Amino acid sequence: MRIRTCCPAHNCGGRCLLVATVEDGVIVRLEADDRRDDDLAMPRLVACARGRAYLQRQYHPDRLTHPQRRVGKRGEGRFERISWDEALDVAAAEIRRVRETYGHGALFVPYGTGAYSNTNGSHLARRLFNLSGGCLGIENTYSWACTNRATPTVYGTRITGNQRQDQVNSRYILMWGWNPAEMIDGTNSAWFVKQARERGARVVCIDPRKTLSAVGLADEWVPIRPGTDVAMLTAMAHVLLDEDLVDRDFVRTHCVGFDAATMPAGAAGEESYEDYVLGRRDGVEKTPAWAEAITGVPRETIRRIAREYASAGPAMLVQGYGMQRRAYGEQVVRAGCVLAAITGNVGIPGGSASGLGLPAPDGGSRWLGFPTGENPYGTAIPVAAWTEAVLRGHALGREDGVLGRDRLETDVKLIYAVASNCLIDQHMNVNRSARILADEGLVEFLIVQDQFLTPTARFADLLLPACTAFETYGIQDGWKFGDELLFMPQLVEPLGESKSDYAICSGIAERLGIGEAYTEGRDERQWVDRILELYRDRFPDLPDVDAFEASNAGVHTRPIDEPAVAFADFRKDPEAHPLDTPSGKVEIFSKTLFDLGRPDEIPAVPKYVEEWESPFGEEARRFPLQALGSHSLSRVHSSHANNPWLQEAFPQRVFVNPVDAEARGIRDGDPVRVFNDRGRLVIPCRLTNRIRPGVVDIPQGAWWAPDADGTDRGGNVNVLTTERLTPFAHGPAAHTCMVEIERERP
Asked: 477 — alpha (psi -120 to 50), left (phi > 0) or beta?
């Protein structure tokens, strides 16, 4: 039997249709979308290598199949088998104990996307805690913390992108750190760029790496030194000023803070963006020559790209997320938004306002997650601040990103990690995180609910086996982009004793006395139907679960014949359709940021700020190479790290430029030691000219595997990264990381 379903995704940035062949209760084959040919209004949803290799994960011999309790030291990974009744009793008892001893703020569900349908995922645990009085919540994400917070400081919203069908109207596309061929960023994003290029658009990729996107989608690759993108963006603005390429009419009527004549109320006489670019206050003119010394991009290249972007016609500047996961990552987001604004590419077909880029008119599909309800505790921390909440939660306040109250009341004492490998593998400075979790005087109880014994799961006190999305009912939406819903029928029975995250949390809820409130009398299939019902305001003709299953369509799509353009009404009449900013206009100068009084870290206009670890700092004497942790087709974050097909196709290696390798006596394929003061790892190297000299790349998500002396043999880049967060968004700055490499001696 061939059944259409959805790739479980795990937050790869796409939602793709799969066709599963099921025989005698076993999935024997997975194929990609088999529907009609592509068209712009309603393109196919074609899976990548990860989706096509999913059976290797589904039937992996290491799948967790029964509940277990820790018997060794935390982190040793030694467990004994117990029954479901005992496991759920223990979970409920520990939740109750910690809540009664320390209060609701001591309970915590970390960020996690290792399962990502409405009946599987961390949101199921959030509903559990919300119905029982609440817990310490999370704010923002690991993925795009800075762009999430910085984009609204310019536009008052995160909905800054035109619908992707409009990309064919663009004449010039700047893919700035954007890599849709590998990290996806919406199913078909790469295909839309190809369509634009075939219609005459020039595509330029600015990135330290010659990514698959640069190879397959771009006309030109511009290698830039990591962490210096703001310098190039600022120098491009200098060219626009110098050559009278600024859209003065748009700036005058739609923007504040570009020059002295457009400063917002209460900021007259302060430094405008033009003042900064021309160096009127600091005496440093931000010319292409100035930027060349910082970025490594030739000044003539900067001038040419600035002219092309400003003169080609409607142009798109699309930012990736890697460059905002750095020290002062807020600045690159704002600088990109400002360049889009001063060239008049906001609110027009074929243009782009840059920033986060959620698509008009409504930011894309709402996520079809399980209803979690409100958190009665009403307090949250940035997702990447969980280690601080464990170590010094009682001391964390608004200055640390705490929301909902001035200061936390308690440290985190119980963590319920559902579909999350963020505690160890995906959090920065792994060795530090491991020391924190190993200390039973800090986190008193750790519940891990997952499909595998991940590095995080090795630290569990209680290990609960979750089934995959193929083993229960669920539904997915189109992620950041897309106007489709994908139905996920149950294909096979759960493996062993594994259960859906919904079923596990329901069992704990029953023991906490809130079972009926949690389930509302519904099983997983009935919840899918309920959520479809709630979604019909957006899709009035949406079928119910019976019709979805009977049709075997797998997907319900709303075709886009007339793509929406972000800020089109504002562009036509800024007075009648003001932005949701204090001024109602594009805020090149943010009075809100100015009033924070932290100009060195959070300036009112976007500025280049040298990173706290950089090739220009004292630390470069010992650790002269910048380390990146790119997204790779081998994994979705850390999911698929144990998938044998993907490991064979994309083995974990550190990518090194031959110039850097020759200076260190390193040959292609050599095992090398990559290290700094935070940790060290040993993996094979791959020499390639597709990365600029001075930079090494260790694809993120490989499972941490320390040997007896603490050297990671799994190739996890986060043994090298810092837990320090960005100043405004309190987001991860993992890519700000200086290292050294050397050949590993036998």
From this structure: beta
